[in-house]
Amino acid sequence: MKFSVFADLHHYPGVFMGGTDEDLTFIQERAERAGAEFIIHAGDFCHGPTLVPDYVERYNRFHIPSYHCLGNHDSDSTAYAETLRMYNMPDGHYFFDRSGFRFIVCDPNYFLKDGEYIHYDRGNYYKYGPLRDYMPPDQLEWLRKSIDSAPGPCVLISHESFERPDGVKNREEVLRIIWEANRKRPNSVLMCINGHYHRDFIRILDNVCFFDLNSASYDWLSVKHDNYPEELCREIRLLSNTVVYNDPIHAVVTLEGTTITIEGMESTMFMGINREHTDNPIYDAAGRPVTPTVQSAKITLG
Question: For position 302, what pLDDT does the model report?
């Protein structure tokens, strides 16, 4: 079976470049040509669906089934409960079965305060940096049961990473659930896909493919730069905090037994500006550089 996956489109007109109507059309038309059974994103589709309801509905009503996964920014300007309603999500975490595979959408968008797990809701998480990105215990138990009851191999999709050392805070507990499931029934979990870090990286760890999926739009810079025209920066408020990709890079993934085929794509940097032209580090906390690519690969697990 085949599906289309993208991450971090960040549709936010007047604030970020990218994530445009044309970008969404590009993703949808490629999914059509590829014969994808569904489309899914790994979070940060927009910065609050009530800000851009028509854009959200364009995605929701596309003739190829289109699924959401919550990112840390999806409910920045919209209440969490309203975001779920507009994204047609039964909860922040859920699963669906297609062609003998189970796709499990996880939700590590919780911060831990005074022993309580609190979901991200209208920017309430910003001041809790070291306490962010948790999966609560009840969701971990749900994940265990969802894998155990699956009709076939599982693919986990989340915004934050279960592989990166700077990923989900209790990632070791998630990995333990995956390893235990694979020991009981080999290939119970084939793949984990995440967004959030705007990087392109694949790692095979204990016979599971971890896919750190690049942003479809840009990379965020904590230190501003002045390489883009002033007039354009006035039109796009946070442009000087980004380096931008010219195309909405994403992937089409094919699953056949234990073989995973990732068809990525390459783009270029807007105006040729990359991190090397700014005062920001070239590599992120996991040692991964910015590239305007989503790599292609064919991997057989076994």
Answer: 87
